[in-house]
Amino acid sequence: MVFSSVLFLFRFLPIFMICYFLVPRNMKNLVLFLGSLVFYAWGEPVYIFLMLFSTISDFVWGRLIEEYRGEDRSRIFLLCSVVINLFILGFFKYADFLLQTVNTVFGTSIPLLGLPLPIGISFYTFQTMSYVIDVYRGDTKAQRNILQFGVYVTMFPQLIAGPILKYHQIEKYLQERRSDLDAISYGAKRFVTGLAKKVLLANNLGLLWTQISSLKNDQMSVLMAWIGIVAYAFQIYFDFSGYSDMAIGLGAILGFHFPENFNYPYIATSVTDFWHRWHISLSTWFKEYVYIPLGGNRKGLARQILNILIVWTLTGIWHGAGWNFLFWGLWFALFLILEKLFLGELLKNAPVVFGRVYTLTVVLISWVFFALEKPGEILAYLQAMFGLNGVGLMNTQAMFLGNEYLVLLIIALVACLPVGSLLIHRLKSSKTGPAMALYRVGEKVIPAALLILSVAYIVDASYNPFLYFRF
Amino acid sequence: MDDKRNALLTVGLICAVLFILGIADLCNSDRIYSETENRVLAPRPTFSWESLLSGEYGDDYEEYMSDQFVGRDKWVGIKTRADILFQKKEINGVYLGADRYLIGVNDPQEYTEQMEDSRIASLKKLVNRWDAKVMLVPTADNILTDKLPAFAPHYDEMRLLAKVKESVGEEHYIDVYSALQEHAGEPIYYRTDHHWTSLGAYYGFLAWADNMGKFPYPYNMAGMKTVSEDFQGTLQSRINVAWTKDRIQYFPETEKKPVSITYDFADKADSLYAPEYLETKNQYGFFLNDNHAFIEIHTGYNPGKTLFVIKDSYANSMIPLLAAHYETIYVVDLRYFNGKLFQLMEQYEPEQGMDVLVLYDCIHFLEDFRFY
């Protein structure tokens, strides 16, 4: 099930919330767990057993690690857990990719498995790994209650698209949490904002990207190619951060406090800065569980560069089993390393606008690798962006689409900047009557209006893609 | 206290939307067919463990809920209004043109050269065997170019028609493109529907007569009769907001002499028009009783002359004008006819032979023109 569907909004969500708030405190985890299973099973009934296996397996490993803390065995248990997790992930996500690569390189024809990717597998295996590692390090106690642990792994708000929760961030809420009215009001607004970002902005701009990316090469003018990739940049940002908003909002309603996942990434002044603002829960995961254990920046420059390359290779293929994703990760590694070496210093002394333009250029080009899969397509698109395909600066189709989406692109641009939250903050903190009144009315009318508008777009949706089927 | 009331109101409003609509939807009964969207809506999926386990049931159920959601038509309207607010000029495959014209979008990407060539090859077979005349009517996006939104892409039918003309030969090709272009300023297309009007069909008829070397029956343009002033066609349905209303007219001369018609070998009628359709959403069905696989028309004109028409719905408003030139007209619509075309034609061909006319709009020609 996805959040942006009639089924979720008008059946699952109301029924779930009624049950959740009606049952006594000690039953809430059970309701959340069962609700999450229904949510997950709706589209993937069979893979639910994989998720449950993963849950039970790491619950047991966690207990064993704690039981034998300090002994060699504890290390072996950790290894077992990590190997099982990586095996599951590898088998379901990367097996076909590897087989295909073997087939191409050696000219063999080993049949592919053709397994559909279990939704959310990259998210929940990372969560369970975070748990056993936290236990091993002694950062946290092993969970004694399998239901609480089950809730941590399967919780539907962030199950399929993050944010990736680290166990130590969430542990205390599994046991004891309160939903007060303020949190519920905040959560409801946050959820609707996310829904609107996904349905109104991401889906509509996604439509533009689909139109442009399906054009033949001889129609791809420079303007067209740039409009297209900007549309894609907006689509993936609003889609992803919209999902995170919805997850964080639902979490708040249920009494959790999820970490933020995005922080206005497109205003970043360097690529390093960008990755402090984009999919924060993933980059901090890799930082905490891979980069720092590898030695981070404490073992000399050469080792640091190697560590960066390792982390970004992993980050790349985490996003999908394909060479283009690997290349996408390494593309970022390149600029992160350059920034470590000298570029960062240079940017610090230059006007901020340079940093922004440079970062956006790097990021927009990266989306070409990300969005298109075949090397030929990627190359052709890059050629079009830089006017090397001979179509020219613009054509009538680009003018039409530019015109058609101008208003939406401007809205998306404004929504990428912190102006909205700044405005809300100003209104909220002002003590004057009119500003306060404006805020009070706005906080009620705008979410309700956005919700209704989103429903209209969902009901009449010929286009409501789910971008994370590769993650 | 004030803060608490505020939060309560905020949550209450959002919950109200979800719960009221949710409950309204539960009480809403399912529809089989959407008249406004002109399509069959997804029915409630039948449950089986097998379909549940494959995930198919879940997917079908989502589609079902979305299709049957309470007030579906209203939601489409809200979306259109928002799109208009966003300054969109293309909504659900319809251009919002100047002068309140809705114009169907025909994406140039969708119609490949291969598609063109395969249709033209079929057409050529037909023309060679039957010495047929070919009349492919351009759609509104190619003729009302000044009404299109700025830079709006559209499939170039002129290029298609040049290819057709070259392939079937000039003597078989009726140039309705130029005829319509000459009158582009007149109401030759409906504003809310993808068909041409009776006036457009009349100019098509003149082009036909010219090509056939016939003296056209003298229809009086000033004497056209209006049968409806509130026609809202297929294009309006797609955007589903109040837009404008079209007028349906016809030439009363076509009713001067009695006709006898047989639809699909069974249903008899004595008029080229079916006023009962004016009471439905599909008012264009007024012409020739909407679409039928096979129609047989007998008139009191020109004894011994026979015409065989292979057509789509564009022809429905022009065939009445042809009635004055033939004693017998056979009409076949390939979208609904599954038999062998040439066999059917041989069966109905009189000894003295018959004229054959292929009458399509360019887009339906590309999409639907195939026979066995």
Task: Explain this structure.
- Chain A: GO terms for molecular function: acyltransferase activity.
- Chain A: This is MBOAT family protein.
- Chain A: Its main location: membrane.
- The complex is a heterodimer of chains A (471) and B (372).
- Chain A is globular.
- Chain A has two domains: 6-177, no CATH class; 183-459, no CATH class.
- Helix content of chain A is 73%, strand content 0%.
- In chain A, helix 9 packs antiparallel against helix 10 and helix 9 packs antiparallel against helix 17 (396-416).
- Chain A has 471 residues and is an all-alpha fold.
- Chain B is of the alpha+beta class and 372 residues long.
- The model of chain B has no long low-confidence stretch (mean pLDDT 91).
- A seven-stranded mixed β-sheet of chain B has the order 6-14-12-13-11-9-10.
- Chain B is elongated, with a radius of gyration of 24 Å.
- In chain B, helix 5 (113-130) packs parallel to helix 7 (157-168).
Count of individual beta strands of chain B: 14
Stretches with pLDDT under 50, minimum 5 residues of chain A: none
What structural class do helix, strand and pairing data of chain A support? Answer: mainly alpha
Counted beta strands of chain A: 0
Q: Over all CA atoms, what is the radius of gyration of chain A? A: 23 Å
Subunit organisation of the chains = heterodimer
Q: Which class best fits the helix and strand makeup of chain B?
A: alpha+beta
Topology as H/E string of chain A? HHHHHHHHHHHHHHHHHHH
Cα(first) to Cα(last) distance of chain B is: 78 Å
Outline of chain A: globular
Mean pLDDT of chain B: 91
Show the largest interface. A-B, 54 and 47 residues
Strand order of the largest sheet of chain B: 6-14-12-13-11-9-10
Number of helices of chain B: 13
Pfam family, one (chain B): DHHW
InterPro entries (chain B): DHHW
Protein name (chain B): DHHW protein
Protein name (chain A): MBOAT family protein
